[in-house]
Amino acid sequence: MVFRGWLRVSFIEYPGKISTVLFTGGCNFRCPYCHNPELVFLKESLPQIHENIVLDFLQRRKGMIDAVCITGGEPLIHTPDLFPFLEKVKQMGFLIKIDTNGSLFQPFQQISQAGLADLWGIDYKLPFSLYKKVLGEKWHKNCQSVLDQALKNPNQAEIRTTIYPPFHDEKTLFEMAEKCSSANHWYWQNFQPQKTLSEEARTISPYVPSLLNQWRDLINNHIQKDLIVIRPYS
Ligand code: SF4
């Protein structure tokens, strides 16, 4: 397995744990607001980090690092190589978190059933009624299946959404909340236009934080639960 980026130590990526964060290259989506376009398009300048270097690092930091977080890009497009790497990490005793755009149901199931993910970070990009229109017919069913499956184990899933004005408003967010109300939390992150995959997205103004706070409170009150948590942009 080859990674294309590495943050050696993070105190925020795995809740309550010290983690190391590995970035995979390539993605099957082209979200206009994506803030990692160099990973999506696999820029030549990205490093190539072989798993042996990572495993050696982990071996020497047992007891200092608790968890390994895999993010991207879309990690699950690499499942044939990622799976044996995860097995080695698990055998070493580390917790594992994997981020996914939720579009690859079979790999998600394969890794989940093997017990190789202690925590999933799952994108919930749009109301499912809009998935087809914005991301294409192909992904609609898979994304719904991954979310449904993840919500069966809410302690093992962080559901998160980048709030992007062309996709989200009060109505769409209410619609989305109905589908994920059994999650422990639904994390919102406000869209940032400074660095995006699409040029057009850079011309779009994010919602003002007070409006997001207002929608959060309305939805949380409606479903009688502190479901929505707004996270700072990272
Ligand atoms: S935001 Fe995530 S799913 Fe979308 S293009 Fe970027 S890496 Fe892929």
Q: Provide the list of bound ligands, each named once.
A: iron/sulfur cluster
Distance between the termini: 26 Å
CATH superfamily: Aldolase class I
The name of the CATH architecture is Alpha-Beta Barrel
| Shape by Cα distribution | globular
- Counted by DSSP, the helix tally is 8
List the helices and strands in order: EEEHEHEHEHEHHEHEHE
Question: Keywords for this structure?
Answer:
binds iron/sulfur cluster; alpha/beta; iron-sulfur; TIM Barrel; 234 residues
Descriptive account of the structure:
The chain has 234 residues and is an alpha/beta fold. It has a single domain (3-231), classed as Aldolase class I (TIM Barrel, Alpha-Beta Barrel). The protein is built from 8 helices and 10 strands. It has helices at 37-40, 51-60, 79-91, 105-113, 128-135, 137-150, 170-180, 209-223; strands at 2-3, 5-10, 19-23, 49-50, 67-71, 95-100, 119-123, 157-163, 186-190, 228-231. The strands form 2 sheets. It has an 8-stranded mixed sheet with strand order 2-3-5-6-7-8-9-10, with helices on one face. Strand 6 (95-100), helix 4 and strand 7 (119-123) form a beta-alpha-beta unit. Helix 5 (128-135) runs antiparallel to helix 6. It is globular, with a radius of gyration of 18 Å. The chain starts with a strand and ends with a strand. Bound molecules: iron/sulfur cluster (SF4). The site of iron/sulfur cluster has 12 residues, from loops. Iron/sulfur cluster is lined by residues 27, 29-31, 34, 36, 40, 72-74, 101, 197. GO terms for molecular function: 4 iron, 4 sulfur cluster binding; lyase activity; metal ion binding; oxidoreductase activity. Residues 13-231 form the Radical SAM core domain. InterPro entries: Aldolase_TIM, NrdG2, Organic_radical-activating, Radical_activat_CS, rSAM, rSAM_sf.
